[in-house]
Each structure stands twice: as structure tokens, then as C-alpha cells.
Amino acid sequence: MSGRERRPVTIYEVAERAGVSIATVSRALRDSELVAAPTRRRVQQVAEELRFRPSRAGRALAEGQHAANGIVFPDLSGPYYAEVVLGYEEVVAKLGRSVLILATNGRPNAAEAVLELAGRVDGMVIMGRTVADEVVARIADTGLPLVLLARPPVGLVDTIMTDNEHSARDLAAHLLGHGHRTFAFLGDPDESPDVAGRYAGFRQALTDAGVDPPDPTRCAFDVRAGYAAARELLSRTRPNAVVCANDEVALGALQAAEDLGLSVPGDVALTGWDDIMAARYTRLTTVHQPMRALGATAARRLDERIHGVATKTRPDVLPTRLIVRTSCGPHDREV
Hints:
Blueprint: H1 11-18, H2 22-29, H3 37-50, H4 56-63, E1 68-73, H5 79-94, E2 98-103, H6 110-118, E3 124-127, H7 133-141, E4 146-149, E5 158-162, H8 165-177, E6 183-186, H9 193-208, E7 216-217, H10 223-236, E8 241-244, H11 247-259, E9 269-271, H12 277-281, E10 286-288, H13 291-306, E11 315-318, E12 321-323
Parallel strand pairs: 1-2, 1-3, 3-4, 4-5, 5-11, 6-7, 6-8, 8-9
Antiparallel strand pairs: 10-12
Helix pairs in contact: 1-2, 1-3, 2-3, 5-13, 8-9, 10-11
């Protein structure tokens, strides 16, 4: 084509030369195991000979897909959700797909919004108690690939969670080892499956040790709610230790104790959960959970479902670990 710019090769030309469908070309160029190895090699060789460069839009068209994944969060504020989103988006970007994010916090029509999003994506991750189990089951019945995140299983839908109960037991045992015998728990187990697991493990460890476990002091999972709940609690009673549902609640409780003239851990021990960056600088004893790995694992599992690689439903439970610092008492060594 002397004197003129060469016309880009299309996926249809590759498919015709290789003797396969355009969907097979798309999958072969992604090295998908859904295409037999000899066919993959033939398609890849043809694409190389023709100097074919696939576009994202063309790949989506070939496979009858949107080239987009959906993820539904309870909320998008705070460091925990930010880390999970970063882990999810990083993997999805490498897969050449886009992400549509929906936060249900404050939406009166959350179920309708989630169902509408399901019609615009090739697969969806649903995190926490954003919608009822019935909505999850309804979406699953349509055949849309689904993965649940930080939520108990619903039917045969894959789920990705972190270990809450075992680390909560470790945390309670550590506090008991300091000699603490009266406790408070800040957070609402009814609002989060993760927090329900943490409270259950904490409560059981105290019961096993012959210590009366406290009823939860229910509050939302942010700094402001933690401050208000802790200030009210510490104004009327003085537990040895306040165990918080997450680090944001704990940071609010730390400020409340300071405003009341109480020292941490001298007057009251304090713990959190997540191990966000601020926890390290405030020397907060907490539980580290792999927030980015949560998002990344969910993205990979969803991609397997979208492309039919995963055929067996399975739960994944990612490990967590106790991080000991000075907010629960003095130690010879900190993390």
C-alpha cells in the first residue's frame, strides 16, 4: 500500500485465516485454557504473521461481553474500602477490563441499583451485607458470574473472606494475659459479617477463660461513631480494655479517652482491627488483614468464573494475624 497508511488487520481476518470463530481468536490470544493448545498456537501464529493487535472493544465484541466487571460496596469512605478497591482494580486492569463501582450506603433502592448494574457487566463482586441473600440468589439464577466478598456463602456462589474468629481469640487471650478482666466491645455485629465473626471469637475466648463477655456497644464503623460511642461509654464506666470492631472506631475511641483525660493504656487498654497506616503511628494493637489481597483474590476468582475456568464452588479464607503494640499495655517488643 505504497503512499498510503496500512489498514489495521481485523479480528475477522485472523479468524478466517486460522479457520476458527472470532470468539476463539479472542480467547486464544489471551492464552485461555478454554482453547485447545494446538489451536491456540495456530491462532497466535496467524496473528503474528498478520501483525494483528487486538483492541479491548474488539475483544469484548468477539466474546459478546461488556469488557467491564462490577463491584458492590457498602461504602467507599475510609482506608479499608480504599485498599480493597486498589487490590481489585489492579488485577482487573491487568486483565484489560474496566470496573463499575456501586456503593449502596444511603441508597433507599439499593437492590434495584444492584440488579440494574448486573445487566451492564460480565460479572460482579458483592461485598458485605449490601443487599439481601434473595437479591444475590436472584442474580445468580440469571447465570451472571458472581463472587461474594467479606460475606458468608449464598447458595453455590464463591465467597472470599478473612479469618476473623481465630485472630479475635488470639487478641482476647493477649488482653487476658495482661491481666485485663473487664471489657467493652465497640461495633455492631449485626451490620457486618466480619464484625460478627470478630465478636463471636472474642466472646467465646472470654467465656472459655471464665470472664463475663460484654454485650456490644453498637456503633457505625467510622472515627466519628467510635468517638461518640467511646466517650459515652467511658463517661459512665471504666472497663480494663475496649476492643473495637476496626481501627477507625479505635482511633475515635483514642481521641475520646484523651478528651476525657484518660491515658491509653494506663487507664484503659484499646485495640482495633485492620492494621491501617494510622494504626502504626498511634501504636495501636490491632489485627492485620490483607485488604488488597481481598480485592485481588476476588478479581481473579471472578475472571475465572467469567471465562469458565473455575467450575467448582469454593470458599477462600485469607489469614489474619495479631499485631501487638503499646495501646494494650507495655511490651518488651513491638511490631
